[in-house]
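Q: What would this chain look like folded?
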Amino acid sequence: QQQPTMNIAKSALALALASTARAFSPAARAFSSAATTSRGGAFSTGGGVSSSRKVISSSSVSTTALKASVSRLTEPAKDLLPGVDVFIFDCDGVIWRGDSVIEGIPETLEKLRALGKKMYFVTNNSTKSRAGYKKKFDSLGLDVPAEEIFSSSFAAAAYLEQTNFKESGKKVYVVGEVGIQEELDLIGVPHFGGPEDGGKAPDMGPGGMLEHDPDVGAVVVGFDRNINYYKIQYAQLCINENPGCEFIATNTDAVTHLTDAQEWAGNGSMVGAIKGCTGQEPTVVGKPSPLMIDYLCDKLGLDRARICMVGDRLDTDILFGSDNGLKSLLVLSGVTTEEKLLSQENTITPDFYADSIVDFFIDEK
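A: My prediction, written as structure tokens:
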């Protein structure tokens, strides 16, 4: 099915990387000189492929309603590893679930590094900044350099950086958590809302109304465990009543992993609430936006055909891979079940699927 066109600026990553060069300095300097895309332009990936592109191998093969082959990974040493130089991993449901690392992940990442594979970790979860995610990787015993980590909170700040939002003199209202605020601080954009508005309630008595700041030029909506009616009302007032106020979503994921016990409503529920009362479609900066993959390919000289996107979601991770000409692999360690993958309703198919990335070395068992 055709996905809605996303209003995403290709060069957003460039300027933000340059301004936060402490962690990303070598690549950032190379990339910052190439910023070219202006605000408001929808980005065309070029070289993208149909989501039904498939690799037929000696792996066991199932069939979907599209009659497209879906290969379970059984011989990674033959079918996967030789053809991949770079792995892009989602985090929730792939590396960890909630605050628990998935069994076998540390050893698997070490084996991939020993083979000379490059790795990047791209998450749609905006609750933490890149610095926050670095701390989480460390706490889970995962040795991941800061320059390999990208979050949707960073992508939101990068988009605002590219569009010269700071020069407008406007403010950002945040529906979300500290990750967005920390990334906005790094680029010097004034903001308010977020956790500070978690306990507020508007006056809804006779004649009651909620005053809002007319200088808000953008509302950024990310996952918010303290979403409330005050925040929804404040956001809709800014978007509906402030001329030119932009509606930005870090992602529209339906569900997320807060704990390893069950699925929880994701940022799609927060974004949906704001869409419902404004009638506006947001600018989406997280996956399946091509922003990150353009950086990796165009500025680091990587070959799309030798990159594999690994995730647990069909409509973000696998679509991100198939729409951008990458190999893709779905893991069943997150939100997507084998039943859903192989159902007649599913129209998004990966090149391979596996129980988890531990199966990358199933040949050794």
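Residues 131 and 240 are 34 Å apart (CA to CA).
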